[in-house]
Amino acid sequence: MADNLYDFDNNGLARAYKDCKWALFDRCGNQVGEWYSYIEEWGEGFYKIEQGAKKNIMRPDGTVVLKAWHNDVFKVKHGFFLFSNTIRKSKNNPKTRYTYGLAHVTGDVIFPMIFDSADWLEKGDGIYAEINSKPYILTLDGSVYDPARDHLPQKINIDYKELFEKFANWTLPGLQFFYRDTDAPVVIDTTYHVGDVLRAGFFVDVTTKLYRPAHKTRFLIASAHAAMMCEIEELCQQNPDVKKWNLCTFHFNSYFKVMDVYEKDGVTQVFLLHIPAAAAFFIGHDETAMNFVNEATGQESSLIDMARKSLDEKMQMEVHPRSLDKEFCARMEHPIGLDDDFYPVPLNSADEPEEGAIANLSNMIHNLADDADIQDFINVEDNYPYHGVEGSVCEGCIYANGIQGHGEGCGRLFIKSFRERYLKGRCEYRKTDIMSPSLFEEMDKYHKRKEKDKTEKSTDTFALRVVRRFIDEHLDGDINKLMHTDLYAFQEDNNGDTELTRTNIIRSIMALVFSDSWPDLTVQNIEQYNYCCSMMNEDVRLSGSNIADQYMMGLQKFSPSKELNERAIRTNHLLHTIGNFWVLPNKRNDKDTLSNYKDTPPHYRGYMDKYLKAMYVAISGHGKVDMRMKGLLYKNRKLMNDYQGLDGFKRLVHNLMLEEYMDEQSIPKDIFPMVWSYMKGLDRDTYLSAVASFCDFCEYAIPRRSQRIIEKLSIILKSNR
C-alpha cells in the first residue's frame, strides 16, 4: 500500500499517492484498478482518472468506462457524463476549438463528439448543446430536441394571386398564332385531350402563316414566346429557307395547354396555348385561370372561337405553297409532345446542355423567345418557434420594438443573429437602457483595450508604464525600495492569476532588463509562451510551505532553533524579490521546458547550482551531458544562438547576472546539498545544516543580483522618459 492514504469514501475506497502516481485501495489494503497520474471522485460513486493529458471514467470495481481516452471528462449525472477533445489551432484549423459527446457509465457512447459546446441544464434533466451556434436539447432517453425546428420540412405557400397575375402577363401580351401541319400516324382522340398539359420534348419548328391544310392534322399554337428565327437577318442570309418559311421555333422545354380539339372536313386541329413551366405544374388544371386567358382577347370571341374560326376560314382558301414544300413538311412531321415511339414526353423538364452546338441553339432560342419561367410566387414558411417578446430574452430590451414579423430580426440584429439568441435565451446585445452598455459593448471595449495592450506589449511601452506605476504607487517613487520588496504581497498586479511569475510587474521588469540578452524579448512574447519567467531558487522542498509567517512546515518537523526558523521565514520572503527571478526560452522538448526542468524530480529538485552545472556541461561539452537538457537547448537553439560553447556559457552567465553561482573560471559551484524535508533517513543535523547553508547563500546572492537589476532598470527608465 502507498504511504499517503486519504479518507475512505462511500464506496469503501481511499485514494493513495506514491511516486507521483495515484491509485485506489479498499479497507483491506487491496489495490483497486491501476496506478494513474491522478484520481478524483467524480459523482455517483465513479472516479475521474488521468493518464498523462488524457482522461477517463473509472467504476468502483476499477474497470475503465470508455475504450478511448479523451482530453476531458465531466462529472457523472444520472449515469451520464460529457466527454470532450481539444482540436488545437493549426494551418487547417485557424482557431482552437472543443468537441463534446455524451456517454453512459455502461460504456455506451450516446452521442459522438459532434457538438461544439455542451452543458447540463439547470435542473439536470437534459443537456444543452450547440452545433455551429444552433441549439439542441439532449434528453436522457437518447433523443434530440431541436428548438429551432429545423428538422421539420419547410412549409411552401403558393401566392396564387401573384402566380395568376404573372401567368397572365407572361401569356397574353404579344400573343399570336403559329402553325404546324402533319400526316404523322397519331390517333388524336386518344392522345390529345382538352385540359391536358404537355411538354414539347424537341425543338418545335412552326410558321407564322398557313392556309388550307394539306395534311390531316394541324397544330395551332397561341404564344407570345416563340423564337422568331425568320426575323434574324444573319440566319436568313445563311439559310434563305428560314425567311421563305417564316420559320419560328419553340424550345424543347416549352409547355402547352390543350385548349381545344376541332375537326372540320377531315382535318383535325389541336389548339395549344403556350404557358410557362410554373403554370404547367401549379395552375395547369385550374380552369378559372385558363378560362380567363381564353376570354381575355379584348374582342367578343374567345381564343378557342378564334382558333376554330381560323380553320373554318382557311378551309375555304387554297393550299399555301409552304404546305407543299417537302423539306418544310419534313421539319413539321413529328407531333408535338410525343417521343419517337409516339408516347407522351415526360412532363418534368429535361436537362439542358451546357456546351456544344446544341447548347448554343438552346441558349439562342431562350434569348429570342424571352421564355424564362415566372418567379417569386412561392413563399417558404419556416417552423421557427417565435412566441413574442413576453417571457423571452427580448422582454425589456430597447430593441424589442423593432422585432419584425415572425422573428425576422429586431432593432439591432438581422434574422439569423436574432433567432439564434432568441432560442438560446442569451443575447449580448440586450440593453434595457440606452445609457447602459450591453455586454457586447463592454466586450468590444475590452477587446479594443486588449488589442491596444497587445500592441504596447510588443514594444517597451506597456512594460515601462507598469514599472513606473508600480514604483509610484508601491515604492513611494523610490526604485531602490524594489530590492527588499516581496512582490508576492501585491496581489492586485496578478490579474486574477495566483502564480507570481505571471504578474505584469515581474514580466515587465524581466522584459526591460534582459531585452539585450534574448532575441525579441517583450511582455507580449512572454505572454505568448515564447519565454517564461520563473524563480531561480525555491524552498518548498527544503523548508516546506510558509504557514502564516509563523513557521515553515517542512522545517518544523526537525525542531529548529528560533533563530533558524526566523531566518527561513525571511529567506522565504527574499525568494519573492526581483533578484531571484530570471527569464528563459520556453519551447518544450517532450513535456519539459528549460524553466520547469529545474524543478522536476528526481534530477535537480529546484537547486540552481545543480541545474546550472547541467546547463554548463550541455553548452560547453565539458563533462557527462544530461541528454534531456541537451534536447531542451537544441529545441531552443534559435534563441540560444549567442550562447554556444564555453564562451557562450560565460556570456549567458554575464547577461543573466549569474556570477554569484560561478567560481573564478565561470564554472558553476556546488552551493547547496541535495536535501529535502521529506527525504527518507535524513538526520536532523544534516537537514538543519542544509537549511542554514541555503539561507546563507540567498541572503548574500539575491540582494546583490537585485541591486544589479535595479541599476540597469534605472538607466532604462531614465533613457525612455
Describe this structure in words.
By secondary structure, the protein is of the alpha+beta class. Helices cover 31% and strands 20% of the residues. The chain contains 21 helices and 28 strands. It has a five-stranded mixed β-sheet with strand order 17-20-23-22-18. A hairpin with a 2-residue loop joins strand 22 (255-264) and strand 23. Helix 12 (461-474) packs across helix 13 and helix 16 (562-574) packs parallel to helix 21 (684-719). The longest helix is centred in the C-terminal third of the chain and has 36 residues, at 684-719. 31% of the residues are buried. The model has no long low-confidence stretch (mean pLDDT 91).
Give the topology, please.
Blueprint lengths: L3 E5 L4 E6 L2 E6 L4 E6 L1 E4 L5 E5 L2 E5 L13 E2 L6 E8 L9 E8 L4 E7 L1 E4 L5 E6 L2 E6 L4 E2 L9 E4 L1 H12 L4 E7 L5 H4 L5 E3 L4 E4 L9 E7 L9 H6 L1 H5 L2 E4 L4 E10 L2 E9 L1 H6 L4 H9 L7 H12 L11 H6 L25 H13 L8 E4 L33 H10 L14 H19 L3 H14 L29 H10 L9 H5 L3 E5 L10 E2 L3 E2 H4 L5 H13 L6 E5 L8 H4 L10 H13 L6 H9 L9 H11 L28 H36 L2
Helix pairs in contact: 12-13, 16-21, 18-19, 18-20
Question: What's the gist of this structure?
Answer:
With 721 residues, the chain is α+β, with helices and mostly antiparallel strands. A hairpin with a 5-residue loop joins strand 12 and strand 13.
Top keywords for this entry?
721 residues, alpha+beta, five-stranded mixed sheet, four-stranded antiparallel sheet, 21 helices, 28 strands, 20% strand
